[in-house]
């Protein structure tokens, strides 16, 4: 029994059995009085000894940032689904573009195809880099240091994050002009100018993403060490704060501009529908305008839901880290940031479904099914009411 006690509780056994030789550290811990002047008890010695044994390991984990190897299943599944859905949407948009090459919808389809192609490239490049990061063992990260891999991954994250938001804003502005000022739209908007606008959007996003390459901001590994982004959680400097404000400000401004343009387009179409005015546009053109605005609203809602958390949490974390008030909330903000980037990744998965589901053919089919069910429900109610009237008339005659 005594031997079993020694095997299970070796630290306590050393206190219970003083005949056993003690190390100098243990003897000092046993003889050292506490704050009240009484000798150390076995329980206080056990807590002290446990702290002595555990603290070096904890310090090593915090200092090296070494985490257990994470599972890449979710990242691989997200990457695969995003690639498949974007390819499906790209095929649908390419067929539609060939059909409406000479119509006003061609510029919208060119924007939409470019957006989906950019999302596809983002899934392939960012996904491959993240999967490469998952293969590193052990998975270590530091919020203060960076390397060439992190610099490239962070730049890709910023570039492929800004491009879809810029394109969504440009598409909303183009449709707003087309709905409110169709003649001016026909004069200003051409396929060549649309391609120039796309090139400028890519160039602007690239310039913002390359700022840390010129020491204007820093990309660092983010919790849990599988992705890179602007330094927002630890050691944030003035340039880092300015960079994250620039990134989030541009993204939020794009979302706000798209909201304003889509609101104006929607109100204009609703007014035209309610007044039932016959304008110069044909019914087919008006139907195309409605379809495009519905798709833009879907893109805007999806982008706002998916991107707002990362943009807001990034600014909040950077402000508190720069002011030195992050403190014990650092772990919370790290979890918020990883949640935000996962939601932003979902945006690139959901965007293709806007074009797949919110097409005119699908919407018309949904409308017919809903109308059919409504008429069936009304007929059932009419038959039931007529049955009750007949039954009441028969009882009155009797």
From TrEMBL:
Keywords, alphabetical: Cell membrane, G-protein coupled receptor, Glycoprotein, Membrane, Receptor, Transducer, Transmembrane, Transmembrane helix
Domain G-protein coupled receptors family 1 profile as annotated: residue spans: 85-355
UniProt xrefs under InterPro entries: GPCR_Rhodpsn, GPCR_Rhodpsn_7TM, Prostanoid_rcpt, Thbox_rcpt
Source organism, top-level taxon: Eukaryota
KW Magnesium (keyword) present: no
GO cellular component entries: plasma membrane
One BP term from GO: inflammatory response
Protein's cellular compartments: Cell membrane
A GO molecular-function descriptor: thromboxane receptor activity
Membrane-topology descriptor: Multi-pass membrane protein
Transmembrane segments: 73-94, 106-131, 151-173, 194-214, 241-272, 293-316, 336-358
UniProt main location, coarse: membrane
Pfam families from the UniProt entry: 7tm_1 (PF00001)
Keyword Cell membrane: yes
Family indicated by similarity: Belongs to the G-protein coupled receptor 1 family.
Stated name of the protein: Thromboxane A2 receptor
Organism expressing this protein natively: Neogobius melanostomus (round goby)
